[in-house]
Write a structure and sequence with these properties.
single chain, 328 residues, six-stranded parallel beta sheet, 12 helices
Length: 328
């Protein structure tokens, strides 16, 4: 099969192709097609030529609307069309292909902070962002590398900067330290730093370093172990419980009942990576089973297909899952 495309706006063509045609090469590798470019004209050869054309058309539509297209946009488009083909096998005519491009653009969700704009990179990430926007309580459940924690932090920073919440509270169960962190040297922040480092990384990616330090100093951003949430009522706050699979059922109930007026909560975790002692039930999975169907709570379940780190990460996770299911 073969297909061809001609682009009228020569200013946008280099952005569509990417530096040294990196965008086209990514599409070639993903779909096993050959893309030949001659200036503003593309020739596509291969069994998946039609799919490649639809993806390139969708990216071109983004550029024409003034939106950014980078290597992540290409990956997002590939994921969108892969999922769509998995759900629908029927062929599309030209009119329906245009609608597909429209659907791809409309499917994206974004979070805007003063430092950067984050755009969903998979359909499930888009669902997660939407769940955080529309629910007071949202769960992001699934394997590492799917963006659960990063997007929750970005949403928290966005709402804090807009004044929709007054503070951010970052929380994790300190299972590795048995939550007896009082025996560790230093102030609370110093004690928790090793366990909160992934949250700090996301903070620094979405907020200027000097602002983070200032907000930490006045408790507009607060770092706290899960055990220290007991007895508190958290008003006007965006509260994130990360690595929630390491909470017990009683800790989870305690945390959930801390929600106060004008607050939002996001709970993230990966049920396959619990550090709880053998025989201790995870509070995350207990909460998912108990609260499923409750109005006002959003549940988003990621899979290895949603891993946005290097593709090898998804393969590693799948290999370990397969080994576990075989009982090895």
């Amino acid at each position: 099969m073969h297909d061809s495309l001609i682009f009228e706006d020569n200013r946008l063509v280099p952005v569509l192709y990417g530096e040294q045609n990196v965008h086209l090469k990514k599409i070639e590798d993903a779909l096993d097609v050959q893309i030949i470019n001659r200036g503003n004209e593309l020739f596509i050869n291969g069994h998946n030529a039609d799919s490649a054309r639809q993806i390139i058309e969708a990216l071109w539509a983004k550029l024409q609307q003034g939106q950014e297209v980078d290597i992540h946009s290409v990956d997002s488009a590939l994921r969108f069309f892969e999922e769509r083909q998995g759900n629908r096998a029927d062929k599309k005519n030209g009119k329906e292909n245009n609608q597909t491009s429209r659907n791809f653009i409309d499917s994206e969700q974004q979070i805007v902070t003063q430092k950067k704009k984050i755009i969903s990179r998979t359909p499930m990430q888009a669902s997660y962002i939407q769940a955080m926007k529309t629910n007071k309580l949202a769960f992001g459940i699934g394997p590492a590398g799917t963006g659960k924690t990063y997007l929750a932090i970005a949403m928290a920073v966005s709402l804090l900067e807009k004044g929709d919440v007054e503070r951010i509270i970052l929380c994790r169960p300190a299972v590795e330290a048995g939550e007896r962190i009082g025996f560790l040297p230093g102030e609370m922040k110093e004690k928790m730093d090793p366990y909160m480092r992934p949250l700090y990384d996301a903070l620094h990616d979405t907020m200027a370093a000097d602002k983070i330090l200032k907000k930490l100093a006045v408790d507009e951003i607060e770092i706290a172990p899960l055990a220290f949430m007991r007895g508190r009522t958290l008003n006007n706050a965006f509260v994130i419980l990360d690595e929630a699979q390491n909470s017990t059922t009683m800790q989870m109930l305690m945390f959930l009942t801390r929600m106060g007026e004008s607050s939002r909560m996001v709970i993230t975790g990966d049920a396959s990576q619990t550090d709880l002692p053998s025989g201790v039930r995870s509070g995350l999975m207990d909460a998912v089973e108990t609260l499923d169907g409750v109005e006002g709570i959003g549940f988003v379940r990621f899979t290895t297909k949603d891993v946005v780190r290097d593709r090898l990460v998804a393969k590693i996770i799948e290999a370990y899952d397969a080994k576990k299911h075989k009982g090895l």
